[in-house]
Amino acid sequence: MFNRMISWIDQRFPLTSFVKHDLTGYPTPRNLSYWWNFGFLAGFVLVLQLATGIFLAMHYKADSGMAFDSIQHIMRDVNYGWLLRYLHATGASAFFVVVYVHMARTLYYGSYRKPRELLWWTGQGLLLLLMAISFMGYLLPWGQMSYWGAAVITNLFRATPFIGDQVVIWLRGDYGVGDATLTRFFALHYLFPFIIVGGVVIHLIALHTVKSSNPSGINLADKDNIPFHPYFTIKDMFGLGVYLLVFFVFVFFFPNAFIEAANNIPANPMQTPPHIVPEWYFLPFYAILRSVPDLIGGVVAMGLSVMIFAAMPYMDRSRIPGGAHYRPLYRLQFYIFIIAIFVLGYVGSQPVTDNIVLLGRGATLVYFACFLFLPIISKVEERMLLKRGLPPAVRAMVEGEKA
Amino acid sequence: MINHRSSKRFCLVLLLGLLPLFANASEEKLDESPIPTDRASIQRGAEEVVTTCGGCHGLKYVKYSDLLTLGFAKDKVDGWRGPLPLDAALKPQMSADDATASFGVAPPDLSLMAAAREGGGHYLYSYLTGYHINDKGELTNSVFPVTRMPDVLGLSGITDPKQRAEMEEKAKDVSAFLIWAADPHAQERKHLGYYVLAYVFVMTILLFLWKKQIWHDIDRQPKIE
User: Fold this and answer.
1) Residue A140 burial by CB count (10 A; 0-12/13-18/19+): exposed, middle or buried?
2) Residue B221 contacts A, CB cutoff 8 Å
3) Does residue B75 lie in a domain region?
């Protein structure tokens, strides 16, 4: 019966071949480390955000007079509404943690390199969408930080040449952030996640064309690729368990860790909070924005700091295969880059003082230098490594690499 | 040559070197003494808030019926609510306009106060007990010097240590109630959290063992760098 049903479907839809190509038979390098779990985790968090978000939307009121109250209604009166909201709010932070680790892994192991450029760029697109969604979602509770965060960020679009003021009004739907802003942000906050789902499908199609990279950074021989199922389904499930342990500690015991105190005060356009900070996941970029003294320069620097990742496949000019594992200079630079991000994150969270500005400027320079010097560094490193002779293991793998 | 370990160590040293720069947080000192979480303290605090603070402050997200859930007797709650229905929010006795006329500012709603201030319950406790007479002989508050709220618990005028300790106890109960009011499901949340974590923990161990079993043959193959 079951087989008959499947063959009925197969004559009309490539079900069996799809499962075979993309799941049971999908060849996956056997040496993937646990850093390779984060792509799956990002997919899981996306589904959880969609599920909790849809239920929250059933009780939320996108109206500047009711939004704040409706959140408290969800927190107090809706059955397990507090759980829905804490899952969703913590989930937003978790999404960025997972995606940032996923990106750091890609950088470290050189997974952005040929032939995975399109995979990397679709990922860059997903990051931009995620940033837009979380920024708009943060306005919805209509607290002080929501309001002033949105006011500050939309105001940045004043930097658009010639039509800056009009762009800001167009984004807000009004001269200031107000009811029109809230309703459009809500509409888009509900729409964009489904675009992300589509983007993820494209990301996965690209992945399944070029296949996963691996810690060595070199394509493995056939015998070293194993089917995705059951090996990586079970490994992803185990990783998910570990992830959930950490996630639930925050959801159930520290749910307010990522909610600014000032956001528990209803939005008040007449009163600026003493210290406006964006969510933690925007802090490094916010610090870069503040490090440039002039508005247009700051906005350009901030935009560049997010978009420059897309240039990685061209910045990295080394012919040495693989990622940081065999490339000491690139590895050093990777760690310096990570430190710069943490320093920028700290700077972004602090009120502006002379020392903080200085530290921020230094870290901004280091941040961009990591990208801009990469063409030179990778070439110097290549020459150095070739002169010294590649380690036998790498050489063997380069020779064994399938074309 | 820079190898793997030394570049990691280099970064660690760099990070540690930067640490002193980070340690300049300039927050006002809050009294961090623990705020009770037991039902009895929350109840005493609720009574104090309804009878004393309720003169000026409302709690628009807390209903009179919530006080029944907290364990107050029906006739006590009936006495407090007067003609208001049971599912009405706790209303201030003084209208916002009258209060603004007297204090120059409307007393803020207290339902979310414990969540809306950095430091939460410790802020509330420090604020309520922070009233004192400064060197110039003026009444001031150590965490909110220019506050327009009067010293309702009267701590600035108490000299007797025993009486002071009593009032501090009262301030703790009030803070305990306001913490409850800001997040009434906190107890239930933590309770559920233990079960969820225990379940996920056991599940994760089983998944780990299952993974080991499935990967048994692969794990025995020579490692790829």
Assistant:
1) buried
2) yes
3) yes
Q: Which two tokens stand for residue B135?
A: 């060197």
Strand A27-29 to B131-133 pairing? unpaired
Note the ipTM here. Answer: 0.91
Interface mutation vs chain A, best among B200, B205, B209, B212, most A CBs within 10 Å: B200
Peptide bond into A230 cis (omega under 30): yes
Catalytic: which of A70, A146, A212, A305?
A212
The verdict on B143 and B199 lying in the same domain is no
Same domain for B153 and B215, yes or no, is no
CB A312 within 8 A of CB A356: no
Instruction: Indicate the angle between helix axes A295-307 and A283-291, nearest 10 degrees.
Output: 140
Sequence-ordered list of residues with C-beta below 8 angstroms from that of B120, at least 6 positions apart, any chain: A261, B114, B179, B182
Cβ–Cβ < 8 Å for A90, A247: yes
**Same domain, yes or no, for B76 and B172?**
yes
| Residue B15 confidence class, pLDDT cut points 50, 70, 90 | very low
First and final C-alpha spacing in chain B: 20
Ordered DSSP codes for A175-237: SSSSHHHHHHHHHHHHHHHHHHHHHHHHHHHHHHHH----TT-SPPPGGGEEEHHHHHHHHHH
pLDDT digits (tens, 9 = 90+) for B100-157: 999 999 999 999 999 999 999 999 999 999 999 989 988 999 999 999 999 999 888 8
**B68-74: long-range contacts at Cβ-Cβ below 8 A with a sequence spacing of 24 or more?**
B70/B39, B70/B42, B70/B43, B70/B46, B70/B180, B71/B39, B71/B43, B72/B43, B72/B46, B72/B47
In a domain, B150, yes or no: yes
- Residues 207-236 on A with a CB inside 8 Å of B are 214-216, 220, 224, 226, 230-231, 234-235
Q: What are the backbone dihedrals phi and psi of residue A148, each rounded to the nearest 5 degrees, phi first?
A: -75, -30
Tell me the CATH architecture of domain A23-272. Up-down Bundle (1.20)
| Structural domain that includes position B224 | 186-225
Q: Is B202 on the interface with A (CB under 8 A)?
A: no
Identify the sign of the CA torsion A62, A67, A69, A75.
Answer: positive
pTM of the model: 0.92
Say how far apart CA B209 and CA A238 lie, in whole Å.
9
8 Å CB contact between A324 and A331: yes
> Per-residue pLDDT tens for A165-178?
999 999 999 999 99
Sequence ranges of chain A with CATH classification 1.20.810.10: 23-272
